[in-house]
Design goal:
- The chain has about 190 residues and is of the alpha/beta class.
- The protein has a domain of about 130 residues: Ribosomal protein L30/S12 (60s Ribosomal Protein L30, Chain: A), CATH 3.30.1330.30.
- The protein has 7 helices and 7 strands, in the order E-E-E-H-H-E-H-E-H-E-H-E-H-H.
- Strand 1 and strand 2 form a beta hairpin.
- Helix 1 runs parallel beside helix 5 and helix 6 runs antiparallel to helix 7.
- The longest helix has 20 residues.
- The N terminus and C terminus are likely disordered.
Length: about 190
């Protein structure tokens, strides 16, 4: 909100600029040894999940499990319905026909964002978009480049953002443990 100085109509007092470096000081920030453990754990679960489903090529299988890249993560989050109130989901009686060509939106379990992206504004919108859909955000920070570590997870050179799609496999179980999502743990274990 701008305020106009009444004494001098030509001067404008601008609001304080918010920090463009949005790096939370919470449990979902991984760096150092915890980042290495996270990357190794996810890579191990990718291998386990991939062994159980070898019907598709590896590249297509990865696309079914993850949204890779800022644009793809943004697109999937935008297609998810925003949550009104504290609890919302796809209606149980919703039908999706080929004629209607509206398929149910892909549900994102969590997104992982590298804090070292350049320019920083590329991923700035993702935390608020994820928050509006109640999707947890995991930040990775590394001196050598978090985007290199994210790329390593999915066999690419770099990745600034990766969205984990809710598919009910061992990858989802691991991510559920990381973000404390008990619902996914129940679905995977059948409890």
């Amino acid at each position: 909100m701008m305020r106009i100085n009444k004494n001098n109509k030509n001067s404008v007092v601008l609001p304080q600029k918010a920090s463009s470096d949005y790096i939370p000081q919470q449990a979902n920030l991984f760096e150092g040894e915890s980042l290495l453990h996270l990357v190794n754990s996810i890579q191990r679960e990718i291998k386990v999940a991939r062994l159980s489903d070898e019907s598709l090529t590896h590249k297509i299988w990865l696309k079914q499990q993850f949204s890779i890249g800022v644009n793809d993560v943004t697109r999937v989050l935008e297609r998810m319905p925003p949550l009104i109130g504290s609890i919302s989901s796809i209606p149980q009686n919703a039908t999706y026909s080929r004629r209607n060509s509206k398929s149910p939106p892909i549900q994102m379990q969590a997104i992982i964002i590298a804090t070292d992206c350049n320019p920083r504004g590329l991923t700035k919108h993702l935390p608020s978009l994820a928050s509006s859909r109640e999707v947890p955000v995991i930040f990775v920070k590394d001196k050598k480049g978090g985007s290199f570590k994210l790329g390593e997870m999915v066999n690419l050179k770099t990745a600034m953002a990766i969205g984990v799609k809710a598919r009910g496999n061992s990858i989802n179980k691991l991510i559920g443990e990381i973000v404390g999502d008990n619902q996914v743990n129940k679905e995977v274990t059948g409890s």
